[in-house]
Design a protein that fits this description.
Length: 482
């Protein structure tokens, strides 16, 4: 079986060991062996990036544009093939996986354009005869730590701006899904970018991630993952003076008001809660429903859930693939039991199931769970589950719905289903979230606009779009005597 190595200083470098990459839809299917590096590999990658930075940081914007555009073009040309790999290793359905790959390609093409749009300011000083220039410069070697749920899109939206603005990169992808990151690294490697500018080191987070965060020559860390790990990274970066950007958890509310279009509200709730197996930081896991529509909504949502087909991620007709791992499946099932013990009622689903395709292949499949009659203080409504599990909270009116929606330590995404312009406008202003959706699923954002949240969900500058420059550059003010 082929072993996929780390990319360090332009060469494919074996790790100290390797580990299998297994298909969660079929546990007998091993996709390949992937290198497991250690701290010495991080040292070598950071040294290569440090050596490459002086030349890359002042390289011509046309050369950077051409390289990023070439990367984006190849990703889009191979989206079917790469989407199949993504679905195979992560478990989201093949159409969703192909869409994610396309998004990665579009991200690289967007930031290829940003290479040509670098801008600054020229201002007069308050002192006569002096001019002031305000420019942006790259920050240096950037360590990127990415999660398993979007194994090509999230690496893309971190790598592309880092390179576009003249930084050098060392990336550690999630250990569960190294295949998509390796394929992306291979494309970048062949794009014409100089050796050392981009480096891939695969391996365990506690080894590779910690070494990146602690390395004195890494100027900044961008992390997407769990709250606990993110807080530890933030503390370490503050101590060492590193710039830090964190995207962490969510407990996103979806409000459904009495005046909502019922069919629309049910569909967007099903999409938000259960598609991608609920393994999205923007997924809705709290359905906050006002009193009069509550019975009809719960019944209609159960009927919609009965039509969801769970099965092999790459099989035609599958709506929801498997949970990514045994540990994640156990966590999802445990939260269902915790909710029941605290008084919530399991209306439907919530158990491990066989693959619906009839293949007989063993995978991490779970029937989506809907819990009703829950209360805001239950753990199911306070803690992130990160699976196909949703709870319904009954409230009296819009004012109570807004208060419950904001009653959380997180603030990534929030949605409202209503036909009232008054309530929609008020919710957009007063929902304590970085992203707000009106009559749309909470999961699903564009690649050219800022992504991020508030409170415990995010820390530091926004990701994506033109706002990415806030993290990947530093501002310089220069004075000139005329």
């Amino acid at each position: 079986m082929t072993t996929h190595n780390n990319l360090i200083n332009g060469s494919w470098t074996p790790g100290k060991t390797s580990a299998p990459n297994t298909n969660p839809s079929d546990l007998s299917d091993v996709i390949g062996q992937y290198a497991q590096g250690d701290a010495s590999d991080v040292d070598a990658a950071v040294a290569a990036a440090t050596a490459a930075f002086p030349a890359w940081s002042v390289s011509g914007i046309q050369a950077r544009h051409d390289a990023l555009d070439k990367i984006g073009h190849e990703i889009l040309a191979r989206k079917e093939e790469l989407g199949d790999l993504l679905a195979r290793e992560e478990g989201k359905t093949r159409p969703e996986a192909i869409g994610e790959v396309a998004r990665a390609g579009q991200i690289f093409k967007f930031f290829a354009g940003e290479c040509l749009r670098l801008a600054g300011e020229s201002l007069p000083s308050v002192r006569p005869g002096i001019g002031v220039e305000i420019t942006r410069e790259p920050i240096g070697v950037v360590g990127l730590i990415t999660p398993w749920n979007f194994p090509i899109a999230i690496p893309a939206w971190k790598i592309a701006p880092a390179l576009a603005f003249g930084n050098c990169v060392v990336i550690k992808p999630a250990d569960l899904v190294p295949g998509s990151a390796w394929a992306l690294a291979d494309i970048i490697h062949r794009s014409g970018i100089p050796a050392g500018v981009f480096n891939l080191v695969m391996g365990r987070g506690r080894i590779i991630g910690d070494a990146l965060v602690q390395h004195p020559d890494v100027a900044a860390i961008s992390f997407t993952g769990s709250v606990g790990v993110g807080r530890g990274i933030a503390e370490a970066c503050v101590k060492s003076g590193k710039k830090v950007q964190l995207e962490m958890g969510g407990k996103n509310p979806q409000v459904v008001l009495d005046d909502a279009d019922l069919a629309q509200a049910v569909e967007l709730s099903a999409q938000s809660c259960f598609y991608s197996t609920g393994q999205r930081c923007t997924a809705s896991s709290r359905l906050i429903v006002t009193d009069k529509i509550y019975p009809a909504f719960v019944q209609a949502l159960q009927e919609r859930m009965a039509r969801i087909k769970v099965g092999d991620a790459r099989a035609a007709g599958t709506d929801i693939g498997p949970v990514v791992s045994q540990a994640q499946l156990e966590q999802d099932l445990s939260y269902v039991e915790i909710a029941k013990a605290e008084g919530a009622v399991l209306a439907t689903g919530g158990s491990r199931i066989a693959c619906h395709t009839g293949s007989g292949k063993e995978g991490f499949f779970m029937q989506p769970a809907l819990l009703v009659d829950s209360t805001p203080q239950m753990r199911i409504n306070r803690e992130e589950v990160f699976g196909p599990v949703a709870s319904v909270i009954r409230v009296q009116d819009y004012e109570e719905a807004l208060a419950v929606a904001n009653d959380t330590a997180f603030g990534l995404s929030a949605g409202i289903a209503t036909t009232s312009l008054k309530y929609a406008s008020h919710f957009k202003r007063h929902a304590q979230a970085g992203m707000v959706m009106v009559n749309l699923p909470t999961a699903g954002v564009d690649y050219h606009v800022p992504f991020g949240g508030r409170k415990g969900s995010s820390y530091g500058p926004r990701e994506q779009g033109r706002y990415a420059q806030e993290f990947y550059t530093t501002v310089k003010t220069a004075y000139t005597l005329a």
